[in-house]
Amino acid sequence: MKNILSDLDKAFENRVRLGAMSVLMVNDWVEFTALKETLEVTDGNLASHLGGLEKAGYVQVRKAFIGRKPNTSYAATDKGKAAFQQHLNALESLLKNNGLTS
């Protein structure tokens, strides 16, 4: 029997990473500040998790200046979108195969 957890991606086990990818899946680019406010996390916490997703190749970062103020935005990569969709499919399958949904 196949391990029912094998298709879950460890990169999305944390709620901040799961939330960040959820937001990035439905938006082209999202500013760091908007992500921080949406997820209600600290700068350091969000930066750490986005760094992990970036290292995995799941998000890309765009740094720019608006006037003299730095602005950082993030977007999900094609690899990240595919991995996240596979993770969601695995969660759905896990629930269905264990009689937790109809």
UniProtKB/TrEMBL annotation:
InterPro entries: WH-like_DNA-bd_sf, WH_DNA-bd_dom, WH_DNA-bd_sf. Coiled coil: none annotated. Residues 16-95 form the Winged helix DNA-binding domain. One of its GO terms (molecular function) is DNA binding. It comes from the Bacteria. Keywords: DNA-binding. This is Winged helix DNA-binding domain-containing protein. It comes from Catalinimonas alkaloidigena.
